[in-house]
């Protein structure tokens, strides 16, 4: 984090550490200080000055940086401090918890108020922004930690180094469980339970959640096992957490409902006012006496710290505060839940999202019954109002365009676990498609809702999910339950979990399309994937492996899939270095009677002329293949001559052949002309990007005029054509009864050429509907007018 940049060879001076609440930002700050004090790391700094934004909230303004430092370090006299500040390159300032600041610190406001004197009195926000802008103590290093949502006010582009704390990896979660439970067998039972719950397992990347989850699960898996259902949702988890605290300290609290009601009201006040840190005046306002903090109950919910000779309080975790805030309208009849819901709907900064999830989850019968046993009855009116709101809100969001709001509403539905409500809202939709990339939690919730609505045949298509790899196993597990899905940008996920994906293919018969475009499974990944593709349960119809770093080494496995999986009809392999030997291996599978492939895309696969013999053999054997895409390969005239033998075979049923940019010249056109006059199934031919020239078109026109030619679409873009070929093309237009689309873009036909074409277009036998002549140099206004007149006189004809 503090190392020199490879690009500039300089140390970064402005650093932002981002991470969710409880992920370990403050712990990292403590580790930095510990390593510095013990001499392990960061020794280029002579002094480190750490500040917490929560401490600065109560600081009287105006103030100066010098005053802030002296207040934190009373032993530093002003003269000594001045000497220290003269060498800013030796100083590190850390400001922890930007999201906890009550000061309006906005780095995006231009022009910024700046300060260049450490003894100048100004606002704290000005001191922080001036340090970050390097107008104050230029050359010092500044670190700010924050939750992602508070970083909206930071000009990230101006920050020299950004670090995100992503939390526990899959292996680290397992290690944490082993360390938390003294009995290894118990730890594995608890861990396996969590692994089976995709939502809870995913949440375990956060160390704070991991601790809360282990604390809640302990009674379920230790010797004092209880015969109750383990938590499945986040609301159930936090309800269990609070219940456990209440039960463990039931002898201390007197009336736990009254105490928890007051704490919940303070939590809700904090959410309303973006307040994460409370002081004694806040405690008194909500009838929470500081003396009560001596109880174990209070200590397990609130954390107490000393800040400049005063006590401050924070909830154990931001999510604990949000859960208790959601509990408030169910405990306190004076809290208007309708007002809360309206406020949450109108708030755009996202701070009510988790609270809404909890409000919805607390309406679940099992959840509120558990709390009722300890706290007494919860407000039935609040429960009814929340459920009515959720039903109305879901119906509205399903018709709106805000995907963020819809995803949040779907999360609320998930927390209710209310099958009837889910089916009466989401289940009434004929389709539900989320085109944008979504996070793993949202994806898993989406899958749950689809499964819940499955009896009503809710259909989803083109669902795209973006993963960095750390939660891909949960994503794979969800795939086993529902399809079809469209996967993209999953490089790390696939590299780590291709075995799991193979398992999905062998179990999920509803999955029809699998796209791994621009992933990097490599040949070994395809080897593992092919096992699932060969399974009789696999019903994949389209497999997209475009630009996946494949070579000829994987083609044997793919060939085996082609000869085994008769449901596979489309195979996209463009952008891979398969070469001649790769096609040779593929051709064995393509010629197998079990192969039912309709489309084979081998564009840009570094194929030479030598592979065309194998492809020709495939064409004369496989009567199911109707589309062959070979653009951007160096096949040359000799390759096409070889290919044409298969194209003329009576067994060949090819309908589309693409040979764009394949190094072709007029030398192959006689062979192609022979194909056109022989193969009546071919309806689309692309020859764009080849140097065919006028002589090549002359040869092709012979086949195009043949009665057996049924070509409908012909592409001659960028083929070096001039007016000299237009008489032949005009003859084709007036003769062919099938040609409807002709592409002549990016050639040099000029007025004289277009006049010849116009003659063919006017012929009553001409069936052309689309003529493309874009970027043809030298077309006069008169010629353009003549073409426009032609279009107006001939209905159904378009000229571009």
UniProtKB/TrEMBL annotation:
GO CC, any one term: cytosol
Keyword Manganese recorded: no
Name this protein carries in UniProt: NACHT domain-containing protein
Main location: other
SMART domains cross-referenced by the UniProt entry: LRR_RI
Pfam family, one: LRR_6
Source organism of the structure: Latimeria chalumnae (Coelacanth)
Compartment list: Inflammasome
Database matches in InterPro entries: Leu-rich_rpt (IPR001611), LRR_dom_sf (IPR032675), NACHT_NTPase (IPR007111), NLRP_HD2 (IPR041267), NLRP_innate_immun_reg (IPR050637), NOD1/2_WH (IPR041075), P-loop_NTPase (IPR027417)
């Amino acid at each position: 984090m503090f190392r020199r940049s490879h690009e500039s060879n300089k140390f970064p001076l402005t650093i932002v550490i981002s991470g969710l609440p409880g992920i370990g930002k403050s712990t990292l700050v403590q580790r930095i200080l510990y390593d510095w004090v013990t001499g392990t790391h960061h020794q280029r700094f002579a002094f480190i000055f750490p500040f917490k934004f929560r401490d600065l909230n109560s600081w009287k303004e105006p103030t100066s940086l010098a005053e802030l430092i002296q207040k934190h370090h009373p032993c530093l006299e002003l003269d000594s401090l001045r000497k220290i500040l003269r060498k800013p390159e030796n100083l590190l300032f850390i400001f922890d918890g930007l999201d906890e600041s009550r000061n309006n610190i906005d780095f995006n406001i231009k022009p910024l108020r700046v300060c260049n004197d450490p003894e100048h009195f100004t606002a704290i926000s000005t001191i922080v922004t001036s340090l970050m802008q390097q107008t104050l103590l230029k050359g010092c290093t500044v670190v700010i930690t924050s939750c992602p949502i508070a970083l909206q006010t930071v000009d990230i582009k101006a920050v020299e180094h950004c670090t995100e704390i992503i939390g526990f990896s899959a292996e680290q979660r397992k290690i944490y469980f082993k360390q938390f439970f003294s009995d290894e067998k118990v730890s594995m039972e608890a861990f396996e339970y969590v692994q089976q719950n995709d939502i809870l397992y995913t949440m375990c990347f956060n160390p704070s959640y991991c601790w809360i989850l282990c604390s809640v699960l302990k009674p379920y898996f230790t010797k004092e096992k209880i015969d109750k259902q383990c938590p499945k949702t986040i609301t159930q988890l936090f309800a269990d957490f609070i219940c456990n605290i209440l039960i463990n300290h039931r002898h201390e609290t007197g009336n736990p409902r009254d105490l928890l009601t007051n704490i919940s009201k303070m939590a809700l006040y904090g959410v309303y006012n973006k307040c994460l840190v409370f002081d004694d005046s806040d405690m008194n306002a909500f009838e929470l006496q500081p003396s009560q903090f001596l109880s174990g109950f209070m200590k397990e919910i609130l954390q107490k710290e000393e800040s400049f000779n005063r006590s401050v309080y924070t909830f154990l975790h931001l999510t604990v505060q949000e859960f208790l805030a959601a509990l408030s309208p169910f405990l306190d009849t004076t809290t208007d839940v309708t007002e809360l819901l309206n406020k949450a709907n109108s708030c755009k900064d996202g701070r009510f999202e988790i609270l809404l999830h909890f409000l919805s989850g607390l309406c679940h019968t099992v959840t509120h019954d558990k709390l009722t046993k300890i706290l007494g009855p919860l407000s039935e009116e609040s429960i009814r109002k929340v459920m009515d709101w959720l039903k109305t809100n879901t119906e509205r969001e399903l018709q709106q365009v805000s995907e963020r709001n819809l995803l949040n509403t779907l999360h609320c539905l998930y927390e209710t676990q209310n099958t009837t409500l889910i089916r009466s809202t989401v289940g009434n939709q004929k389709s539900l498609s989320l085109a944008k990339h979504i996070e793993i939690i949202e994806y898993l919730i989406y899958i749950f809702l689809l499964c819940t609505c499955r009896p009503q045949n809710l259909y989803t298509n083109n669902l795209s999910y973006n993963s960095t790899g750390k939660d891909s196993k949960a994503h794979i597990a969800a795939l086993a339950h529902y399809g079809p899905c469209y996967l993209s940008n999953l490089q790390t996920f696939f590299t780590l979990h291709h075995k799991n994906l193979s398992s999905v293919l062998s179990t999920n018969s509803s999955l029809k399309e699998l796209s791994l475009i621009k992933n990097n499974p490599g040949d070994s990944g395809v080897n593992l994937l092919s096992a699932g593709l060969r399974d009789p349960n696999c019903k994949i119809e389209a497999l997209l492996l475009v630009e996946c770093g494949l070579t000829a080494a994987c083609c044997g496995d793919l060939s085996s899939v082609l000869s085994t999986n008769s449901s596979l009809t489309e195979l996209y392999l463009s952008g891979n270095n398969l070469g001649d030997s790769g096609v040779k291996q593929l051709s064995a599978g393509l010629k197998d009677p079990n192969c039912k492939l309709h489309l084979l895309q081998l564009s840009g696969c570094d194929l030479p002329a030598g592979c065309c013999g194998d492809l020709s053999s495939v064409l004369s054997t496989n009567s199911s293949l109707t589309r062959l895409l070979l653009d951007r390969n160096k096949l040359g005239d000799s390759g096409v001559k070889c290919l044409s033998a298969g194209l003329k075979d009576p067994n060949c049923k090819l309908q589309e052949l693409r040979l764009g940019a394949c190094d072709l010249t007029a030398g192959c056109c006689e062979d192609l002309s022979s194909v056109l006059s022989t193969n009546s199934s071919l309806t689309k031919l692309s020859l764009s990007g080849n140097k065919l020239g006028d002589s090549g078109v002359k040869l092709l026109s012979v086949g195009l005029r043949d009665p057996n030619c049924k070509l409908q679409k012909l592409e001659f873009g960028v083929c070096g054509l001039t007016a000299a070929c237009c008489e032949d093309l005009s003859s084709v237009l007036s003769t062919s009864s099938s040609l409807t689309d002709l592409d002549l873009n990016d050639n040099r036909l000029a007025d004289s050429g277009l006049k010849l074409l116009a003659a063919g277009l006017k012929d009553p036998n001409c069936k052309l509907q689309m003529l493309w002549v874009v970027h043809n140099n030298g077309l006069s206004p008169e010629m353009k007018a003549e073409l426009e007149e032609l279009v107006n006189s001939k209905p159904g004809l378009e000229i571009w």
